[in-house]
Amino acid sequence: MAKMTNRIKAQLNGETKYHGKPCQRCKNTERWTSNKTCIKCAQMQKDGKKYRTWRAKHYRDRKSRVVKMKGGKCEHCKQVVPDAEFHLHWIDPPEHGKHFAAFLHLSCDRLTPQLGNVQLLCRSCHAAHHHEQGDLHLLHE
Predict the structure, then answer these.
(1) Of 18, 67, 78, 117, which is the most exposed, with the fewest CB atoms less than 10 Å away?
(2) Mean local confidence (pLDDT), 116-132
(3) 126-130 long-range CB contacts below 8 Å, 24 or more apart?
(4) Predicted local distance difference test score (pLDDT) of residue 74
(5) Are 68 and 112 in contact (CB under 8 A)?
């Protein structure tokens, strides 16, 4: 016979809440727990994972669209590589920063005018460009 947990015992006794080990996140003991978190925290974690998954897919889709708009090949060596291998390089960095994650999340009507300020480079050409200029630290930002 399976081990009877405190939660099952509480359900059999007609209790609506389990007063046992607290949730590891919010320390709440008033809700049923699953996987060491209460149901509310488990749902928040699940929703957060969905959002992160959606955001990553949105970023990849937008980057693919930018790659197609820029011609789909490296502007230096003219090589065609998968979208994930392309790096976007600012010709003249904007005042708001150099992070392309924010750039790629712009709406299409705000993104298109700024594409003239961006070079599409393969990974090796981008690294070589920054190595020549002595600013390799920019590759990791």
Answers:
(1) 78
(2) 88
(3) 126/87, 126/89, 129/76, 129/89
(4) 93
(5) no
Could you give phi then psi for residue 98, rounded to 5 degrees? -110, 5
Farthest-apart Cα atoms in the chain, separation? 73
Across all residues in the chain, what is the average pLDDT?
76
Pick from 2, 7, 4: nearest CA to 18: 7
86 close to 126: Cβ distance less than 8 angstroms: no
- Grouping H, G, I as helix, E, B as strand and the rest as coil, residue 22 is coil
Residue 121 structure tokens:
């480079």
pLDDT digits (tens, 9 = 90+) for 60-115: 888 898 899 889 999 999 999 998 899 888 888 776 565 666 777 777 777 788 88
Amino acid at 132: E
Question: 81-109: b or e for each residue (b if 16 or more CB lie within 10 Å)?
Answer: eeeeebbbbeeeeeeeeeebeebbeeeee
pLDDT at position 121, please? Answer: 92
**Residue 81 DSSP SS3:** coil
> Encoding tokens for residue 116?
């003239």
